[in-house]
Amino acid sequence: MPSNESRVESRKSRERTGSIDGIVADEVVAPEDPQAVAAVLADAAACGHAVAPVGGGTALGLGNPPERIDLILSTLNLGGIIDYEPSDLVLSIGAGARFGDVQAVLGEHGQRLPLDPPGGADATIGGLIATARWGPLRYSNGTLRDLLIGIAVAHPSGTVSHAGGMVVKNVTGYDMPRLYLGSLGTLGVVVSANFKVLPRPRAEATIVASFHGAEEAFSQGNRLRGGREPLAALEVALVDDRWLLAARIEGRERTVDDVAGRVAAFCGGDIVRQNGWSSAEWWAEYVSRQQPTAGDHSVIVRCGGRPKETAILAAGIVAAMDTIDVAVPSLAASPGLGTVVARLELGAVGSRERLAGVQDVLLGLADTATILAAPPSWKQGLDVWGRLPEGFDVMQSLRQQFDPARTVNPGRFAGFL
Amino acid sequence: MDTRVDRYSLVTSLENIVGKDAVFTRAADLLVYEYDGSVDGAVETAMPAAVALPTTAQQVADIVLLARRANLPVVARGAGTGLSGGAVPQQGGIIIGLTRMNRILEIDRDDRTALVEPGVINLELSEATIPHRFFFAPDPSSQKACTIGGNVAENSGGPHCLKYGVTSNHILGLEVVLPDGRIVWTGGRAAGISGYDLTGAMVGSEGMLGIVTKALVRLTPMPEATLVLLAPFADIDSASHATTRIISAGIVPAALEMMDNLTIQAVEPAYHAGYPMDAGAVLLIEIDGIADDVRGTGEEIATICAEAGATEVRSATSQAERDLLWKGRKMALGAMGRLAPNYYLHDTVVPRSKLPATLRRVDEISRDFDLPIANVFHAGDGNLHPLMLFDRRIAGSTERVLEASKEIITYCVEVGGALSGEHGIGTEKSGYMTMVYTADDLAAMAGLKNSFDPAGMFNPDKIFPKGYMCGEVRALRMQAMAQKLGIHAL
Amino acid sequence: MAVAADTDANLLRLGGFSGKDIPEDDLLRACVHCGMCLPACPTYRLTGQEMSSPRGRLWLMRAVADDRLDLLDPLFDEQMYQCLNCRACEAVCPSGVHYGPLVEASRAQLEQHRPRSLSDRVVRRIGLDWLFADSWRLRWIVNLLRLSQRSGLTVLARKMGILKALGMADLEALTPAISRRALVPGNERWDADLSISPPRRARLFNGCVMGTVFANTNRAAARVMARNGSDVDVPVAQLCCGALHVHAGMMEEARVLARTNIDAFASSGDDPIVVTAAGCGAALKEYGYILKDDPAYAESARTFSARIRDFTEYLGERDLVPPTRTIRRQVTYQEPCHLVHAQRISRQPRDLMNAISGLELIEMKESSLCCGSAGIYNIVRPDMANELGDRKALHAMETTASEVITANPGCQMQVGASLRRNGSTAKVRHIADLLDEAYGGAKTKRSVIGNSAQHATR
Do B168 and A156 touch (CB under 8 A)? Predict the structure, then answer.
């Protein structure tokens, strides 16, 4: 669709150098087509060089500090829409496309990707796939995992492989798109992806109820979750010493109005209602708290456990951090999912050892604990991904099969793969 | 034990693992393990060397270890209702039948999960969770018989996956026996488990990567309201146009099914579902959600259908009325017996906007091959099920059916479709893989296979074109070496 | 476990179907092995093994037909007789495979071609041929039994294995239920309640066990039909329906019985023939099939079969006269396989129960899964039968109903015994007895229109 092409046009990368976690690469390349990406990777593999793919740069702090970087591979020149058939509700797009631009094009046809990951509009499609991050909309819409129907990946072998396609239901061979999702480039660099897109809801509203204690917020939240009201997102958050219960409602105008009214009445107390654009803005700001701010010493962690024990996990984190003198200025819990994302302040006395201590405490409380962001020096030697997953040796074989020379992002992924 | 395990010691070893009454090695017993649900002729039948029916994951692991020592392939099998030959052993070996591992271990209402063994029957899981007002969303047409383990292996769909997604969207974690005999968990209740998404890789891998011994599945809350609409059209063309218009209007029904006239001719006299016998096609559309939304969406769909030429739009809200409308659809396959003794149910997918053209092409092929083809399928997601009717007693008829199906596949691929939407590749379509995938694409899949099962022990000769995985290890690594030897693009 | 070598030798000694009653090839090949029958099959549910499934058994038959499996392979024998012939698979088969006739023909093949042990033959001859082929003998035995139960001879009889051999091991538990007086065809008739119009006429199929052990149930059924406007009589010269013979593959013996019965009912025009035993009903409805190759009887057998109605089916054809009594009771319903699967009758019994005021029908889980009775199955294969019986009993007990209602004598005995084995005091009753109670029973003058032993039939 050429008319769209211009809207999501490639933004040429002009950087000459780049760095990740303080490790500087001498060279930045921005190939313009998938084969060129594969060629860059193959060349690097042959020379034993390490490559770090970079998209919008919104999640560069994710992962362990790279062992080394010789080359930054920018995907920003791979940004165009490859195919978009609004009547089929499917989209094929280059990895370098900016998420915000994609949403804008889809929006013109009343469609969207129902995702609200931290990093938001500036993240690229490739980056979102590599990091597999999600936001509160996961409550109703799932994640990229539920939308990704096809993929093209450039491998260090010099090849570009495709999997899946442009149909919404497909069992033709292994489900490779899911394998690449969240693999941080370690199996290859995503060059384009196909999605099923969904109709944009006609209206939305958000109800935010404010409580003094976590217990009350969670118990109301759990009751909402167990009830029959259709919610797009449901979060319990600690913001500025207040516990908030936030419910996002999407759908037809009348339904949204009715449901919002009922949810507000149910929550009682101190209620703020946001409608339409301001509802969307509220959530954009909400997830932005889960992004590191440049230059500060924030640590952002994400813990996961059983959904029904989210309240216990959140309370446990607050209490445990208090005992080791770590402040928790903000925290976002998803009762439907069992996750808690917390911003931690280790203060000026932060160090590698203290961060390791925090991780130990968190792993004692939760099934999963990932350090999403932390000052690079504190991360040294630590596996920020937390517990080594079961079947890790299969993962090692995968890395060995797809990238035997560990060309892409050496050391950054789980278990320093 | 030596690399070569003789028959006698194989039998006794298997009996030591699972007990005498769970091992079958007599040729007569093995006869009944040489088929699955796929059509004779489309899939070669083949006998295993032994069948074992374990009851625990540890037994599965022990059998895998034994097979490894004996250098025998292993094929996992559920209810054997598959339609692509996935459970039919191609190189003999040991069949691990998981039918005796059929317990629902836990239903957790608060976490909205169920922990089940692989032999649990799909529909029985939903029946067990409905009292808690939950259901297991994937609902393949064989759901009365097929097992969760089989659903995982094939990444099964069903009418309601239009809204709720396929099996993969509902599997949170798997306990898996790997080809080296270890038992590992992939995924789990908690979000954010590190590393690669091995659960995602396992689902739809057709038993080639590991054997599922437990599945942690997501349960879906029952909708507050459900509405079923029946819209008859004068011809297939207008019905398929209505379908694309509903989808492009941004409506996502729970299910959107189409039946053509030939299907109606078979179904209506058998079940009296109320489909007009003179209709060229009917659409069966289900909408669910909260009552207000359902009503509003129903009206919109009715308007679209009327504009697209529906002769009427009937709606059913009560359970009994809805069941009757659905009965014709769900029993359609069975009713085909009224038209011909045999049928070959095909499974392809096309982009939804290509439905009208594809159905026209199917009609042409039907005439070219002088082969009645009924269409009863998941129109909402473009998942075609051309049903070729034939009598296999007539010499050459099976071959004609296979030729016609090749024509259909070729066309579907040409318009941007896929080989299979929900039945899998197995051996039925492995020969067609090169129609949609390049050598590089297949090499990436081989890379996944080799990471789990470098010896090719689990379910050999499936998915990949015959001979593809033989001898040499096909993978990116090898190609990478070639690159290292000096073939650089830059 | 046999080692492979014997097996292969077995396979070489091929012998397909031959002689009479060969499983019909077209019926056999209608199976496309889709597997939809698996969960409906009781033996598959218990074993989880493919050879114990309908699909597996059909495949084995096909293998014999194709000379890939010896007819006399022990597996074939085992599977053809492990099958309960409950027909649950037929009811769910998308391709409409007629499984029953196929397994019956396979058994007939085995009967013809296999050498049987002497004791086996003696028991079968006594049990099926000698006993059931003559209604006087059965009546005599049942009287003996009733007497023996009262006098303590049962213990002796059980020790001697007589009860077991006769397929009546559970009779002891039924002492009060055994009718004191057999219903002798021709000796009793019931006149229609004349206030119900138009009047109808029905012929009661008496059968063997129903006419003796459960004679009172047949009387109850007749009273209920009379109350609903039907003259009922019990034509003379009728015999056992032959269902057990068909199930056992004794097709010739079954045909003899079938011809006798067809003749016995020939003079009653096209009056419906009402059956109170689901197993008999299913068999009678298949006379047309088993005699299709008999030029003298093919036509009359078809007509005969078309006249057959299950008791509940017959009542369901007209609006029911509302039962007069309120019965405050919780009951659950056990569906006889040969009613729900073979005859596809499932709604009518429930409608009848729901017509009784005060009665609460609580559905049990798996109400249509075989209880394990299956003709003489519970005698031949007590292990599998007991397992199914226990499963049935536990489902029935979960409902907390005080009575289990069914519509077949075999089920009545099997479920009764299973309930007691599992410590339940719930009663098992035939639906005719329940309805009769709801109409006031035998003591209510209004419903006892007439029961003279002096009446001549016809």
Answer: no
Is the omega angle on the peptide bond into residue C199 within 30 degrees of 0, that is, cis?
no
Question: What is the model's pLDDT at position C227?
Answer: 92
Average pLDDT over chain A, rounded to whole?
92
Instruction: Report the C-alpha gap between C130 and C303 in whole angstroms.
Output: 28
Write the CA distances from C35 to B79, B143, B404, C302, integer angstroms. 7, 11, 25, 32
Let me know if domain C329-439 sits in CATH 3.30.70: no
Measured CA to CA in angstroms, residue A87 lies from A106, A166, B241, B248, C277 at distances of 12, 13, 11, 4, 60
C-alpha count within 13 angstroms, C-beta hemisphere, residue C186: 8
Q: Over 70: is that where the pLDDT of B100 sits? A: yes
Question: Tokens in use for C409?
Answer: 């004598």
Q: What is the CATH number that goes with domain C25-113?
A: 1.10.1060.10
Angstrom CA distances, A310 to A227, A315, A337, A358, C121, stand at 17, 9, 8, 19, 70
Q: Report yes or no: B206 and B462 within 8 Å, Cβ to Cβ.
A: yes
Poorest-pLDDT segment among B251-255, B404-408, C5-9, C195-199: C5-9
- Mind telling me how many Å the CA of A90 is from chain B's nearest CA? 9
**Is residue A64 very low, low, confident or very high in pLDDT (cuts 50, 70, 90)?**
very high
Q: Kindly report the nearest CA distance between residue B270 and chain A, in angstroms.
A: 31
Contact A254 B247 (CB under 8 A): no
**Closest residue of B to A413, CA-based?**
B195
How big, in percent rounded to 5, are the helix, strand and coil portions of chain A? Answer: 35, 30, 40
| A259 vs B341, higher pLDDT | A259
Question: Min CA distance, B330 vs chain C (Å)?
Answer: 10
CB–CB contact B418 A45 (8 Å): no
Asked whether at least 3 C-beta pairs link A and C within 8 Å, the reply is: no
The answer to whether C48 contacts chain B (CB < 8 Å) is: yes
- Check if CATH label 1.10.150.390 holds for domain C188-317: no
Q: By the CB < 8 Å criterion, does B320 face chain C? A: no
Give every residue of chain C whose pLDDT is below 70, as ranges. 1-15, 116-138, 140-177, 443-458
Rounded to 5 degrees, φ, ψ at C101 are -55, -30
Nearest-CB residue to A46 (from B176, B476, B488) = B488
The CATH classification of domain A3-199, taken from the options 1.10.3080.10, 3.40.630.40, 3.30.465.10, 3.30.230.70: 3.30.465.10
pTM for the structure as a whole: 0.90
Task: Return the pLDDT at B3.
Answer: 44
The yes-or-no answer to whether A3-199 and A299-379 have a common fold is no
Instruction: Compute the average pLDDT of residues A37-41.
Output: 96
Distance separating alpha carbons of residues C274 and C309, to the nearest angstrom: 5
Q: Is the pLDDT of residue B473 over 60?
A: no
CA distance B240 to chain A (A): 13
In angstroms, the CA B79 to CA C45 distance is 11
| pLDDT greater than 70 at residue B446 | yes
Could you tell me if C12 lies within 8 Å of chain B, comparing CB atoms? no
Chain C contact partners (≥3 CB pairs within 8 A): B
CATH architecture of A299-379: 2-Layer Sandwich (3.30)
CB contact under 8 A, B32 and C38: no
> For C97, which residue in chain B has the nearest alpha carbon?
B337
* Interface contacts (A, B; CB < 8 Å): 303
pLDDT of residue C330: 96
pLDDT of residue A120: 84
Task: Tell whether the model's pLDDT for residue B401 goes beyond 90.
Answer: yes
Q: How far apart are the first and last CA of chain B?
A: 51
Which pair of tokens denotes residue B216? Answer: 């942690």
Chain A residues within an 8 Å CB radius of B165: 142, 146
Mutate to test the interface with B, among A62, A89, A170 (most CBs of B within 10 A): A170
